[in-house]
Amino acid sequence: MGYVVTDKCIKCKYQDCVTVCPVNCFYHGEVMLVIHPDECIDCGACEPVCTAQAIIFGDTSEGQVWLDLNLNYSNTWPNITRKGETPADADSYKKLEGKYEKYFSENPGTPVR
Ligand code: SF4
Ligand code: F3S
Fold first, then answer.
1. Which atom of ligand 1 is nearest the CA belonging to 43?
2. Quick one: which ligand is closest to 31's CA?
3. Torsion of Cα atoms, 21 then 84 then 90 then 10, to 10°
4. Which ligand is nearest the CA of 20, by number?
5. What are 46-94's pLDDT values in tens digits?
6. Cα distance from N-terminal residue to C-terminal residue, the chain
7. pLDDT digits 0-9 by tens, 23-45
8. Global pTM value
9. Measured between alpha carbons, how far is 4 from 57 in angstroms, rounded to an integer?
10. Which phi and psi angles does 38 have, rounded to 5°?
11. Which residue CA neighbors atom 2 of ligand 1 most closely?
């Protein structure tokens, strides 16, 4: 099953999650990251390091809502293994609701140099 990233990541993208994942199963979109639910080994390391509290266990009612998005985009977006720059205005999006409807993008992220 694995963990999933919710829309709380959108436009925050702090990327601390990437630095602790032992199996490098994060994938990089323009405005958020996702986890490949089948590659995640459920270690739980990423959940507490996300200050946006965007990472939850997939096998919950809320997790189910975001599971397809994580599965779909982890198959199309590039893998990300290093933390890039956090958006300068990330903190101002941290508490917003409904970010998926307002800001989601299907575009892949640009590679971290
Ligand atoms: Fe990676 Fe562990 Fe988070 Fe799964 S729970 S995405 S394996 S850090
Ligand atoms: Fe997103 Fe949290 Fe990672 S904001 S990029 S899931 S640390």
1. 2
2. 2
3. -60
4. 1
5. 999 999 999 999 999 999 999 999 999 999 999 999 999 999 999 999 9
6. 31
7. 999 999 999 999 999 999 999 99
8. 0.96
9. 6
10. -85, -20
11. 43
